[in-house]
Amino acid sequence: MNKNVGNIDRAIRVILGLVIIAAGFAYSSWLGVIGIIPLFTAVVSWCPLYCPLKISTCSKSCENK
Question: Per-residue confidence at 45, pLDDT binned at 50, 70, 90?
Answer without folding.
Answer: very high
